[in-house]
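Bug: token stream looks shifted between consecutive jobs. Job 1:
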Amino acid sequence: MKIWAKLQTGEKLQASKIFECNKKLNYNNFVEFMREICYSYDIPTPMILKCQFMHFVNFHNVKFVENDFIESINFDFMQIEQ
């Protein structure tokens, strides 16, 4: 499965990468994969709720905003798409 992770501020795209995951999609693998994505961007990992994971499973995208991060971030949101 390929996942497109992008960081945006307003309408401006700050960073964009495509990641490949070969593991079966479940909540634990999704959390682990999100850690790898955030590590590659050198940003904090957001709190990932089951409802966000289910949104990703059902709609193939999820958006993480400032309130989802414990630490401060220098972008408006991070969007993950499949």
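Job 2, same session, no restart:
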Amino acid sequence: MSLDNVKTTVLEEAKKRAGKLLEDAKAEAERILSDAKAADERARAEAVREVKLRLDRDSARELERCQHDNRLHVLAAKNHAMEEVFKKVSGRLRGMGETERVEMVGKWLAELPADVGGVLKVKPEMVAAYTANLDKLNQSRTGKGRFTAVEGDPKVLSGAVLESDAYHIDCSFHRRIHELRETAAGDLAKVLFGK
């Protein structure tokens, strides 16, 4: 074999090996690039998943906060509406004449047990009106269940307070409105708000 043939054969072998190395290198580079793309896609998918989870949690928290705030606003509106109703009731009571007031308190006193009597304490300027109606207030009462006298008491702002040695029964408008508020708040809410 001549030197030229050896050179040519060596060069061809070298080219083949170089071509093979180049193909292997390209294949390895494509594999590495493919793995990197896959890893990048997984990382992006994980990042997107984490962002979505965080947004879902934040949205749920914000929705819960908004619902809570909404419930508070609705409750405040209901309370305001009920307060307005009780203000109107109080205003109507204050606007009643003496006779109407005595009649109303008389109905409350008539609900007391027949054996409950004693002194009626009233606002000082109402003593005359109650005294004038004492017989009417005692009409269905007998014995120790009778109202024995009417006294002025500056602590009584409206209505009457029945006192004896054994008890103190508050039949003032303030007390009756408070009781009404306690017992009727649920029913009033149903009427006003349908719940």
